[in-house]
Amino acid sequence: MTSLAVVVLLCLSGWVTLYMILCNINGSRGYEWNCRLVTLLHGVLVVCITAYIGYVDGPWPFTYPGTKNTPLQISAMVLSLSYFIFDMVWCMYFRTEGPVMLAHHTVSILGIMLTLWLGESGVESCAVLFGSEITNPLLQARWFLRRTGRYETAVGEAVDLAFVLLFVLMRVFVGGAMLYCELISPRPRFFIKCGGVAMYALSWVFMVDIWRFAKRKYGSKWAQWREQGARSMKNGAVVGDDGHEGKLD
What we know:
Blueprint: H1 2-25, H2 31-57, H3 71-94, H4 99-118, H5 122-133, H6 136-147, H7 154-184, H8 190-236
Helix pairs in contact: 1-2, 1-3, 2-3, 2-5, 2-6, 3-4, 3-5, 4-8, 5-7, 6-7, 7-8
């Protein structure tokens, strides 16, 4: 555990150094811009590593939860643990996030630390990291589009739609299946199962916020489309049989 703690501290210093370099290069962009670049890099790295763990290196998390940690699983968890510590401190210092996100980071940090300490259940922890971080690049892209004035475009619409659909698929459906396999398996420890329940509960808290956002955004768009359709039908009613427009006054 001492050697793992040293590696976590080294990785943490790496994230901090990267953030400081970005702040030095992109000083005019602001602190949050550079922090989100670090977040984006972490998300891409962890998704790639954990995808390789789940689909290539194995074992399959839905079938073999609670198994001994592999070196690659430990590397992925150390990388994420150091990042979550960095981001947690950053969010608390700048006060940019609410209690739900801070709770998410806290559960993630404690869960990874427990998994590393026990030396098992790394495969499902990496699966949770994959499901949690796969929507992260889209979330960061949405924020960058807003800051650069490109959010109200077709790209912004595509990012929003992809984020909502992917979040529902991975966090609710795949995450629910993962939690079910975790709970019915006799191998994972009780505290690991409690952590899985806590993460899934937080996913539903996020899901409520996303539902409100989707309802507000797409509900207003649906109302606009209906209004435009009604207006088009009204305008079409004054067009004669010969195809010429009638007088609108």
